[in-house]
UniProtKB/TrEMBL annotation:
Pfam family, one: EXOC6_Sec15_N
Function summary: Component of the exocyst complex involved in the docking of exocytic vesicles with fusion sites on the plasma membrane during regulated or polarized secretion. Involved in polarized cell growth and organ morphogenesis. During cytokinesis, involved in cell plate initiation, cell plate maturation and formation of new primary cell wall.
Lineage start: Eukaryota, Viridiplantae, Streptophyta, Embryophyta, Tracheophyta
Protein name: Exocyst complex component
Keyword Transport (UniProt): yes
Gene3D superfamilies, per the entry: Dsl1p vesicle tethering complex, Tip20p subunit, domain D, Exocyst complex subunit Sec15 C-terminal domain, N-terminal subdomain
Gene Ontology BP, a term: intracellular protein transport
Residue span, Exocyst complex component EXOC6/Sec15 N-terminal domain: 51-220
Amino acid sequence: MEAKPKRRIVTENGDTGEDLVLATLIGNGDDVGPLVRHAFEMGRPEPLVHQLKNVARKKEAEIEDLCKTHYEEFIVAVDELRGVLVDAEELKSDLATDNFRLQEVGSALLVKLEELLESYAVKKNVTEAIKMSKICVQALELCVKCNSYVSEGQFYHALKTMDLIERNYLKIIPLKVLKLAIERRIPVIKSHIEKKVCSQFTEWLAHIRSSSKSIGQTAIGLIASARQREEEMLERQRKAEEQNTGGLGELAYTLDVEDSEQDSVLKFDLTPLYRAYHIHTILGVPERFRDYYYSNRQLQLDSDLEISYGQPFVESYQTFLAQIAGYFIVEDRVIRTAGDFLLADQVETMWETAIAKIVLVLENQFARMDSPTHLLLVKDYVTLLGATLRQYGYEVGPVLDALDKSRDKYHELLLEECRKQIVTAISEDSYQQMVIRKEADYENNVLSFNLQTSEIMPAFTYIAPFSSMVPDVCRIIRSYIKGSVDYLSYGVNTNFFSVLRKYLDKILIDVLNEVILETINNNSIGVAQAMQIAANISFLEKACDYFLRHAAQLCGIPSRSVEKPQASLAAKVVLKTSRDEAYHALLNVVNTKLDEFMKLPENINWITEEMPQGPHEYMNEVVIYLETVMSTAQQILPTDALYKVGVGAIEHISNSIVSTFLSDSIKRFNANAVSAINHDLRVIENFADERYHSTGLDEVYKEGSFRSYLVEVRQLINLLSSSQPENFMNPVIRERNYNTLDYKKVATICDKFKDSPDGIFGSLANRNTKLTAKKKSMDMLKKRLKEFN
């Protein structure tokens, strides 16, 4: 309020502008340092000093004016102050008096106060000591409890107690010695616990390894039982289908029981593992324990995968495979129940190692095996191993692939074993029709293989059209099919019927057919043997349909799918060819025997001068032999085979007679020899007619009687017996009466026909004899045949 008149006064006194600015700055309390610095920088400080002096003079004048203005007030204030000083002196004197009194009274109180404060200090120290003692006592009690837990093996509680000491007491223990002692003992105790736990865990590792075989065997046994029940169910189902009844309800109940049974049986204790892992987790070293577990289990696996060469594999394979199965069942339980203790990748790595070793062992051992039974036993157990471990999520494809690679090896061994059995069955065959006296034998040897010729049960004793070799071979083939199905089952291919069919064709063609052909081609084979072999082949050919149906049944393939004609076995066609080969061999044997009887150049006098009265004696033997052959063939062989045998024998006789006429050993023959052969031929013709009708072949083969296969020799005999043989050159007559005769054969035979002896005396005696008309005709025929040729 009073500053404005002051500034106005300065202005009214006629101050310069620069003095006014400087005065304003100083009055406002602003910093004049920049003005001073600027004046000295410009080298002109004198004006500034002058201005400052002017400002100072002005301020002094202002102060002086102010004092003059308030002088009276100031005098009053000083008077009042002097009065106050007098009062203060009086108050001071009163205070001194009171203070003296107070000092006299407070001295005693101060002594007691000091005593009280000392008592409070003692109390505080005692309280602090008690508190510290309690802490130490509690810590020591926990230490004692921890030691007790350790001695009792309760390591988890010991670790929790140590954790409590470290967390709640170690930092607040007032006694440094005790604190240091506890700090030093805690790591020692933890180390001791870790070693103890590892020791116990190592014992558990040894125990679980020794238990793995039992675990694996139990699990595989459960799978084997389930498989057996499944096979029994399928067998009941097949029988039910045949009887148009059902029977599946019981099976479902049985399989349900098997699941609960497996859960209750496969029990093993993993508590030591959980406890050890938990303790290591508390110790803060779970990774170290996981590595310790993995490395030890890896070593155990490597040891389990080593096979003993001191013992045959066929005796040790179950132990070997069961140990591996138990190992990975344990690992599966660990990975499912121990949280993140074991990684899936670690188990997968171990499984890949194991499966590679298993495949290598199987391939090596299969290559050394020479028994299909041993190979099948191992294969069955390996498939059980695969089925067991597949339930736990392991990939068993490579193991099944190894089995599939050994498929051909197994079938080669099985084929060789069956070959020996088939060779024995055929070589020991009596080649006599099988006599069946009981219905049970009929079912086992005939009905079992669909070999019956009639749906009606025959009367017993029953004579089968085949020998004992047929059912024996059928049983061998059936066992081969069963063995093949056993190996192919539960493998890589679930639908293995086409593979089984290939192997079935192989044994029928490469083994059975070859053995039969070797028997057929044996030179020592007789007529009865050849005939029985041919009959047996017919029934074996029929049995092929049974083999195919049986194979389909074992594979679970509907029977109707293999009953189509295009679905039949290739072996059926091959056996049919072999049957024809057997017929051919039979005919060869028959024809050889006929040739022994019909030694025409030896049995016939080709230039006899006596007119024959009947057939030659050898012809009776021929007829008796043919009677025997045809009677036996009628009993054993089917109709078409019987016809072939009859036709072949008759045709051979015809060809033999014609060949004899053409033979170089016959230089000439006369009409009497032709007449004798004509008698023989009539005997054969009568036999052919009688057999053709008595066997019922006339109803089946109406266009081709047995006699029709004698037409060539009959036409030849008729030509040689004709009174006008030159009619042979007449096309009409030749087509009607001699259409089967060949020009060259007729020419060769006619050249040998001489109706008069060529001796010297005979020629002279008959030189002038008049030639008969027949001789002239024959000579004309000879001449014309020469011209024709």
